[in-house]
Amino acid sequence: RIHTADSCQKILENNRRIINDDRIVPRVKNCVEPSPSSPYGKDVYSYRIIEQTIRQTFDKDRQPIIVVPGLMLGATDSRSYTNLSKNLYRFSPFIYHHDDLDRLHGDNERMTHLDVQRGLNFYFHLIVNNQLGHIPESKLNTEL
Fold first, then answer.
1. Hey, is 104 helix, strand or coil?
2. Model's pTM, two decimal places?
């Protein structure tokens, strides 16, 4: 997977520079350009709805959750939708512990009942919040 600051051409040129041998002719069998970064920030409504829904779902005991954009390293199906929208956000509303990581897409894949509830609650409120037409309050919502 290519970093969003790179391109197939940049990587090929960098490899040529590093190899620095005209006898070696690099070939590219397959290269998929990186997905563009989705917009984020206080003025981006779609990002703010997700940010607020995360707060509604994960805030505990009045301890605020800090939501920051990040880079998804795995290739996801969202790459098929880049021609439909620039607002493609990859977020998983589940909490994985260290011993869970080996099971993702592997043997004995599972998640806790609490995580399933939290995930359903997140998606429920994400749908509801998108229908409101405004950014909802930061009140914790644990009901479906």
1. coil
2. 0.73
CB of 75 closer than 8 Å to CB of 1:
yes
Strand positions, DSSP E, 8-89? none
Name the nearest CA neighbour of 49 among 67, 61, 36. Answer: 67
Residue, of 106 and 7, whose pLDDT is higher: 7
Q: First CA to last CA across the chain, in angstroms?
A: 37
pLDDT at 105: 77
pLDDT of residue 12: 92
Tokens of 78: 């969202």
How many CB atoms lie under 10 A from the CB of residue 25?
A: 8
Nearest CA to 53 out of 96, 80, 91, 107 is that of: 91
Count of beta carbons in the 10 Å neighbourhood of residue 9: 11
Give the pLDDT confidence of 98-109 residue by residue, as tens digits: 877 777 777 888
**Alpha carbon separation from 94 to 51, 54, 110, 111, 140 (Å, rounded):** 15, 11, 11, 8, 16
**Residue 29: DSSP 8-state:** S
Domains and their CATH numbers in the chain: 1-34 (no CATH), 36-132 (1.10.150)
